[in-house]
Amino acid sequence: MPSLVRKLVGLVGFLLLWEAASRSGLVSPKSVPPASEVLARFVGLFADRKFLVDVVSTVLSWAIALGCAVVLAVLLGLVLGSVPVLRAIAMPIVEFLRPLPAVALIPLVISLLGTDAQTKIVLAAFAAAWPTLMNTIYALGEVDPQLADTARSFRVGRARTFLTVTLPSISPFVLTGVRISASIALIAVVGTEFLAGGSVGLGQYAYVWGTSGGRMDVVLAAAVFAGVFGCLVNAGFSLVQRKWVSWGPEGATA
Questions:
Q1: Membrane-spanning regions, if any (predicted)?
Q2: pTM here?
Q3: Which CATH number fits domain 33-244: 1.10.3720.10, 1.10.10.10, 3.90.1310.10, 1.20.1070.10?
Q4: Full DSSP string of 82-111
């Protein structure tokens, strides 16, 4: 059975189970509306101007946060991965900060930056940087030493060695880290919008409809949109990885 067909079978099966559980009363239809109602509401969201404005705010914040996280993580990862002394000094700090949930820092960041877009961008960038950072550090340790020795034997300069040996070797690992970071950044942005308030954003849209209107169909429809967007982003990165860095192990992670 083709891979796409298997995925569709699993998705349809999940939706049918969801529909049956809600219709039969196994779960409360008020808390978990049937899948058919949620999907109908999902389609109707695109006619809601407020929803579209919130989506644009969330996507822009996600893109900025991911871009900042990737740039900083790759640069720091290259430094720490190339200089053992710095890595030994910095890794205890990295290992301490990496498990910290971004939402736990919401009060601190709000006190410093307020509740505007910069708060969710900073928190999402903090949460998303770690997979890319760790994969970059790990990738530098996996560069084939024979390739580096060959470059040195031909008196290739450091800049050219980096571009022709190091960069191609670490690219698959870095892109895998970016894929993971993209998902984490989206979770952090929507979660911060939901918990920290603000005036716009997908998380705030779901919060308002869930708390003031009790409309779980709208809340779940917004969650479906976030899931679909995340799947499309992940598929896009996977396509780039298969097409441009097909020589590396796609699933390699730190």
A1: 59-84, 96-115, 121-140, 161-178, 184-206, 218-240
A2: 0.87
A3: 1.10.3720.10
A4: H-HHHHHHHHHHHHHHTTS-GGGGHHHHHH
